[in-house]
Task: inverse folding
């Protein structure tokens, strides 16, 4: 089904640039996904503010350089970045204009980057300044100059532009449950559909300012870019440590980021009035206490369920006392078959990319198996957990996430992960690994957690011990790796249980 946007024959960048240049008004009579005003500022970063015209001039220059190097339609460019930067945004947009397929990857050891290049089947790699000192000379890369270039409406015309909504807009690596990286391919249509469906519930428009608070190499970070491109608002780049919330109205975060932002507010380090309206939380179970703390400052917190193959968020709702993930957003579909969550819709990826070959997703009668387990409750999706997070104790099935949702009800718990350990009598027993928002993991807190679990769970589901998550594992990316937690526990405490 064609998307109801003005981007069928023109890229979002060119559209908003022309609207800005002509001081035009984007009509919304037939296009409900667009707003009635064009924001003059397109992007803000440490280097300054850029209008749509200024941003387009940089993108045009880089696009011309990429084409001059011989890159063209469906060629793959690997973009390596440690964090969001002006350069990474410009290169990504330039590749979209040139019809080049981009895979954004994090700073990895040389051997891993070489593997990613081989899997992608690409010979072109650009290192953003944030990673350049560490990798210069270790892999073959291209050089780009970030200068302005004159552009005209002809640059955006169908005869000059290689942009198409059917083009592959991103290759995002995900390991899923296998641990083997796969490059998930999304089209422009997939990303726009994802942004449209969220906009209908999350209420953002051209007057908004989105903070790019998550990495571009995660689908949740790239989704922010497409929300920005959809409505022509302002994009603020998160650069360096901490969160600069000045002027920001919307963002997506993991719970720990919001916790740090609230601490920043409480400490009075913000120099301007708080403008943050809505936060979409994900990547972990959301503590109700965190949402309540945010509400005191007028921040509307939302939670949802999503996955890479569906171009980020699939369901969403305001955080409340119910442990559900909300209703299905527009342009997505969910079916539950024997507790297995199956998804479909306009946001579903076009396939997996390997060495220039696009392989379709494994489908079951038109539905994609997420490997997640769930059920419906009052028309809202309840996530029971990952199928591979299920373990058996004394003949009973235990979902790690069920216990974790109880543990984070305690005001001192920021994150909770259950790891099953081998037990000679029961097969496996649950151990809780915790990150605290306050206090220490002492005997008193453990007793409180035991009482909390016993009040919500059957006794055999209650953890046999509580341990702090090592700081080294908390600071590795936006999500804590369950597999690394399991490895750490088996190495450090194997004689304890």
Result:
């Amino acid at each position: 089904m064609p998307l109801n946007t003005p981007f069928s024959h023109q890229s979002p960048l060119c559209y908003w640039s022309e609207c800005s240049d002509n001081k035009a008004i984007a009509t919304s009579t037939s296009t409900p996904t667009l707003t009635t005003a064009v924001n003059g500022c397109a992007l803000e970063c440490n280097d300054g503010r850029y209008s749509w015209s200024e941003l387009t001039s940089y993108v045009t220059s880089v696009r011309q350089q990429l084409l001059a190097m011989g890159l063209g339609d469906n060629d793959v460019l690997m973009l390596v970045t440690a964090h969001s930067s002006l350069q990474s945004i410009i290169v990504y947009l330039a590749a979209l204009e040139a019809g080049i397929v981009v895979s954004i990857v994090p700073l990895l050891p040389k051997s891993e980057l070489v593997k990613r290049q081989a899997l992608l089947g690409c010979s072109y790699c650009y290192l953003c300044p944030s990673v350049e000192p560490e990798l210069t000379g270790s892999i073959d890369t291209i050089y780009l100059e970030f200068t302005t270039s004159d552009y005209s409406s002809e640059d955006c015309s169908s005869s000059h532009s290689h942009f198409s909504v059917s083009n592959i807009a991103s290759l995002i690596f995900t390991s899923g449950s296998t641990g083997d990286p796969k490059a998930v391919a999304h089209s422009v249509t997939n990303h726009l559909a994802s942004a449209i469906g969220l906009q209908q519930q999350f209420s953002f428009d051209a007057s908004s300012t989105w903070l790019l608070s998550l990495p571009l190499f995660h689908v949740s970070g790239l989704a922010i870019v497409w929300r920005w491109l959809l409505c022509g608002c302002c994009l603020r780049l998160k650069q360096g440590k901490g969160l600069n919330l000045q002027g920001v109205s919307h963002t997506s975060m993991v719970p720990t980021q919001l916790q740090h932002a609230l601490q920043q507010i409480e400490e009075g380090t913000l120099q301007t009035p708080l403008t943050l309206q809505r936060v979409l939380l994900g990547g972990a179970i959301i503590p109700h206490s965190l949402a309540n703390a945010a509400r005191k400052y007028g921040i509307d917190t939302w939670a949802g369920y999503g996955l890479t193959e569906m171009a980020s968020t699939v369901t969403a709702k305001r955080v409340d006392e119910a442990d559900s993930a909300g209703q299905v957003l527009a342009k997505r579909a969910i079916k539950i078959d024997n507790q297995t969550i199956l998804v479909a819709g306009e946001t579903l990826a076009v396939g997996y990319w390997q060495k220039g070959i696009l392989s379709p997703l494994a489908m079951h009668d038109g539905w994609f198996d997420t490997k997640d387990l769930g059920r419906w409750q009052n028309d809202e999706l309840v996530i029971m957990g990952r199928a591979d997070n299920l373990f058996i104790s004394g003949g009973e099935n235990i979902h790690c996430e069920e216990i974790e949702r109880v543990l984070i009800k305690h005001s001192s718990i920021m994150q909770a992960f259950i790891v099953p350990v081998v037990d000679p009598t029961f097969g496996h027993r649950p151990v809780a690994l915790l990150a605290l928002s306050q206090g220490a993991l002492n005997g008193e807190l453990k007793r409180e957690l035991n009482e909390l679990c016993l009040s919500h769970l059957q006794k055999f589901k209650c953890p046999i011990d509580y341990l702090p998550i090592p700081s080294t594992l908390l600071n590795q990316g936006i999500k804590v790796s369950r597999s690394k937690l399991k490895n750490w526990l088996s190495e450090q405490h194997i004689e304890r249980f």
Q: What stands out?
A: The chain has 13 helices and 26 strands. The longest strand covers residues 367-377. The chain has two domains: 12-377, 394-492. The domain at 12-377 is CATH 3.40.50.12780 (Rossmann fold).
